Automatic annotation (TrEMBL):
InterPro entries: Dimeric_a/b-barrel (IPR011008), EthD_dom (IPR009799)
Gene3D superfamilies in UniProt: 3.30.70.100
Protein name as it appears in the record: Ethyl tert-butyl ether degradation EthD
Pfam families: EthD (PF07110)
Native species: Dethiobacter alkaliphilus AHT 1
Domain EthD: 18-91
Domain of life: Bacteria
Molecular-function GO term, any one: oxidoreductase activity
Length: 107
């Protein structure tokens, strides 16, 4: 299983409309990716590791896929659509990380 994380770095003066992201953008993503998308989550940064420190990321979106091949087959045809929606919710250039999930079980 792989996890695709879309991270929106926190920087003074940047905007991020979490309501639009959750209610519109992620609905678009789910529709376009179909059954290849196995699950996901949206997170909002609250703080950094030190008390009072700002969160390093304003928001993060995570998506799970069975394999890199399934992700690429589902995602790549829609990159222009997803990027075209970006100005509707943020002026931040996202950072993307693709990870192999080694453990997804917690008590």
């Amino acid at each position: 299983m792989i996890k695709v994380s879309v991270l929106y770095p926190n920087s003074e003066g940047k905007k991020f409309d979490i309501d639009y992201y959750c209610n519109n953008h992620m609905s678009l993503v789910k529709e376009k990716l179909g059954t290849a998308l196995k699950g996901g989550a949206v997170e909002v940064g609250l703080s950094g590791g030190e008390p009072g420190a700002p969160a390093p990321f304003l928001a993060m979106g995570h998506m799970y896929f069975d394999s890199m091949e399934e992700f690429q087959a589902a995602f790549l045809p829609h990159v222009a659509t997803f990027m075209g929606d970006l100005p509707n919710y943020t002026d931040i250039t996202p950072v993307i990380q693709i990870s192999e999930v080694k453990l997804q079980q917690f008590p």
